[in-house]
Structures are given as C-alpha cells and as structure tokens.
Fold this protein.
Amino acid sequence: MASLPSLTDQGRGLARLRLSGTEHQHGSCGLRKLHDVSFHSLLFMAYYCISCLASQFWPIAGALCYIAVYHIFPERTWWGKELTPLALRYSMIAATATTAGCVFNLRRFISARPFFSLFELLCLLFLLNIWLSPLLGIGWCILTDFQVTKMTKVFIFLFLLVRIVTNMKYYRLLVLTFVLGALYLGYTAHTAPPGNFYNNRLEGIGGPDFAESGALAIHLAAVLPFIAVYFLRPGIWWKALSFVSAAFACQGMVLARGRSAFVGLAAGAVVAILRAPRQLRAKVLLGITLGLLGGYSLCDQAFLDRMKTITSPPGERDASAQSRIGIWRASLDIWQDYPFGIGIGNFERLVGSYESQWANKDSHSSYIDALVELGSQGAVIFAAAVICSFGMLSRCRRMAEGLSIAKEVNVQVYAVQLCLVIFLFGSLTQTRLYCESFWWFMAMPLCLLRSVEHERRMETSALDLERDREPWLDVE
C-alpha cells in the first residue's frame, strides 16, 4: 500500500484552503482604525452581527447568514483581509448562534411535521457510516480526520435547516439566498483578476467547496432553476434580479469551463422539457431557447473547445478526460478488495498502489467516492437518500392539491427536481459527495414538504374556524 502522500492541487484541496484561511485569521497586525475599514467590510459585519442577534428570536436569520457566509467566504476577499485581526470563525459563530436560537425557540423547532422523516434517518445512517468507514477500511489519515469533522458539521446544520425552514415564507427566503449567492459568485468571477486563472480556468472563487473550477460551475448550474422561479414571480424587480443573476451565473460557468456542469445542464434541459408543468411548457421552451442563445453569446473559443472534448473518441481525449477512465478502472479493483469501503479520505493515498500513474489523484466522481470510500452500504444509503428526495417532491405536489399555494408548489417542486438532476448528472465526473451545498439541495424537498404541511394545517384551521362562525357553510 502506498504511503500517505502530501496534499496536491489535484486532490480535494479543502484542507489546504482551510489552513490558508487559518493563516489569514491569525495575522499579527493590530486592529485597524474605523476610518481605515472599507464600506464593504462594514456592510458585511453589520449584516453578520444583526443576523446572529436576530437568530435568537428567528433562527432562520442565522441559517440564511450561514449559507451567505458559505458563498461569500470573507477570508478570501480583499475587504475580508481588513477583518483578519478579529480572528472570527464566521461559519462556526453563525452555526452556533442558529443552534442557540433553535434552543430558545424549542417549541417551534420541534413542531415540524413529519417530526422525523425517512430522509433524516438516511442522513443519520450515512453519517454513521462515515464515522465507521475508517474502521471498516484501511484506517485514518489527515484527510479522513478533516472529512469526518466536516461532514459531521454538515449534517448537524442540515438537521437544523430542515426544522427551521417549515413554512413557505422561510422556504422562499432560502431559495432567494441561493439566487443571491449565485449572483455574488458570478459577479466575483466576472471581476476576478488574472491571478485567479490556472490553465485558462477560473479557480479560487467563493468558499472552499468552490475552490476548483468544476465545483463552482456545477453549483452555479444547479441554482439556475431557482433563478427561473424568481423570474416567474410577479413584479419587475424580481425579474430584473433573476435576469442579472442568470447572466452572471452563466458568465461564471463559462470562465470556470466545467465540462461536468455542461453535462448536468444538458440532462437538466431534457428533464425540463419532459417534466414541465402543463401551464409552463411554452415558457420553459422559450426560456431554454433564450438561455441557449444568451449562453452562447457569453462563450469564448476556449470554452467551446473544451466542451468539444466531451464527445472526443478515446484517441483524441485530453489528459484530464483520459485519466478519469483509468482512475475509475482502478477504483473498481479497489472496491473488489474492499467491498465495505476503504474509509473516507483514503482514496488518494491508496489508488497509487493499484495504478502508480494515478497516485494522489482524486476519484473525479461522487459515485465512485461513495462506492469505494464508503463501501457498498454507503452507496446504497446514498442512493436511497436520492430516491427519498425525489419521492418527497411527489408528496409535496399531491399534498398541495386544493390549497391556495398549489400552483406555486408545483413550480417549486419542478425547480428542485431540475436542481437535483443537474447536480447528480454533473457529479458523474466531479467529486461533490462531500460538498455542503449538495446536501442542502438534497434536503430542500423535506423543507418544502414541511412547508406545504404547515400551510395545509393553517388553511384547514382557518376553514374550520370559519365554519364554526358560519355553520351554514356546511349545508350543501
């Protein structure tokens, strides 16, 4: 078995980014004077502090702040360096404030229905399997420790999120946060300096989960259906926000040159046409057509040349595409030797002992990661969670029938379906299994289900109250 290698650029890169963020946080410079701090820093800190305080009364404020920090990642911005002397751990503080708010509002927190869902059980089993995977596999390494810690935090916040977002008002705010996050990432990509480009591909935008260009492209692609939802809302301002967000998101994908995102979008376009609600089919076809024209106008020759390599024959594939085939073949050999998994974070250090030319390489597939690192049982649990997410969307549509929000729910269900399809197909050739936003997208069906259930109870209660006041309403 190969010895533990040093972290490389081809690896997940998460530990490297975390360490670099720590270096920034513990700078030796003293506190700046107020007049030396930029407006950007003051605006962010005002929003951050207000959100953390408001979360004690409304936990949704802390949850949305956490998601916003995930997209912005102040440590990597020019204005965020002005806040370095404060040595703040933005995500941890926001998550802690959200947790405290849930405790202070425990009655509302535990009132979510269903109280404990199948999806939550599957997530709990998946996390348990992550904890046990090193014991079933080849042991621990530095990436194992990092990934276990990260995924534990991911699922803790996920369990909070699905119990906070339990009405349609909060659900709309959650979707809006993703839209604004895509706008921020797209604008940051558009204004990125030349130093952020490596091999003509945009790198290092946003938080650690977006460190690699392919990861950024997939996330932006997955958010496009949510942007479309806000475009369909009445009001010129929502349409303007959606139009600008979509333009910058597409620009970010072009600069990232992610082939995985292109595959995901292609699959999403097919599903969008086949699964479009009857009243939206004409708008969907028009939207896809305009999107293709607008997206093509943003493309440069480098992007088009890279996308052409997706369908290249074996002899004409570039090194990156060809390496994936070899890595996946070696992965199947590993799985045959370790059917219960090698342990989370161990792929890079073990694959080289099977094929030396792929030493220290990432699996480049979420499904290979699930099968090889987490074992057959991990892959089965993951597949069950995906099926459960789509199943909850069908339940949402049925539950909303006859309610005043039925049309809105149908559109929201449609958007989440497309989001998941784009992300799941994009993850075929990109490692996104341990990406936090992916699990948020997976949990959105449960958030929507609980929101619809809440609205159904409210409308039923209102109707019962009206019947008590006016008994003649029951007379047919």
Notes: The mean pLDDT is 86.
